[in-house]
Amino acid sequence: MGCTVLEFLRVKVLTRRMLPVIAASVVAAIMALVAPAAAEPLDPRYPVCLQKWEWGGSSRTYCSYLSWEDCRASAMGLSAMCLANPYWSGPNPAGTPHGRSAPTRTW
């Protein structure tokens, strides 16, 4: 026929206990969808970067261009612009990897 009062109360208690778990799961899922992406490292080996705007107002920066012309060719037709890589240290001097010299020992 119908459920007894005891069955009704049992279902109500289980539902009440599950509510925080369900709410936490929904909040976690929403945060995963709207959380900003991890910061992108700007590659110091390339002097020119392409900043590309994406849907929703976010942007990504790709530093993989050796010349302004290459970057402009990639940006053509996109909502993007080319900019100087702030981490580019210039051409590497001969014999020093990554433009850095070995530290001097003073002991």
From TrEMBL:
In terms of Pfam families, this protein maps to: DUF3551 (PF12071)
Signal peptide (UniProt feature, chain positions):
1-39
Q: Which domain of life is it from?
A: Bacteria
Keyword list (alphabetical) reads:
Signal
User: This protein is called what?
Assistant: DUF3551 domain-containing protein
Tell me which species this is from.
Answer: Bradyrhizobium cajani
